[in-house]
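Readers outside the structure-tokenisation community will struggle with the description of the input data as it stands. Showing the layout once, in full, would remove most of the difficulty. For illustration, here is how one protein appears when written out as sequence plus structure tokens:
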Amino acid sequence: MNVLRPTNDLGSAIRKLTDELVTTVERLTFSNPVTHVYNPLIYARKGYDRYVHLYGNTTKPVLLVGMNPGPYGMAQTGVPFGDVAKVKEWLGICETVGQPANPHPKRPVTGFSCLRKEVSGSRLWGWAESRFGAPDAFFRRFFVLNYCPLVFMEKSGRNRTPNKLSAYERKKLFAVCDRALMQTLELLRPSWVVGIGGFAEQRVGAAAGKMGIKTGRITHPSPANPAANRGWQARIESELFTMGIAIPDINGDGTT
């Protein structure tokens, strides 16, 4: 297992990679049925930068990778799986959030004033809190990022996931996101990269597999996933255990 190496430069290096990712994805175009694209790494960047500053300043034994921002999570806060309540109350982050370039009337961005719960984020960070207690204990072993930084919406306001884009658009987008993920892995130096859900597992395998890093998958916490609605925390801990990823107890001095 990698030894954590605090460095003042690691967080700034991640932010530099983020700048490059933002510049590249801004050049991409998307066609119908996608009518609106949000990039929270632009208008909610303060929240993301604060997250990296607080918790992304060491190498990580395990990187958890989600698909893309949720409309009531990272799209509002800039933090991956960023349910507002968990981000404010547990992660200790509350920053000013701007507006996307072309807001969808049915998907407003109200930032940390958003009253809607992002269930996936509530479950993920809720598990981290219940298992590890303090954020620092969790982030000594884990870090959480999204593979794709963009939110895609149709005219109706319906969310469109990256895997549902056209083949041409997927090819262009995935090439950019694969490269960004590989560069991030070079910085964080994880022993494991774990996809949160099937799509993330596929993309993680394509990137991390080339680097000789072990990869795996845990069940996505979305309420749209029936398996996540029946004991999700116990399920993912079993999945992590099967991979060989130990989960310390809440005091950090033992494993389950």
User: Anything to note?
Assistant: Confidence is low (pLDDT under 50) at residues 1-7, 252-256.
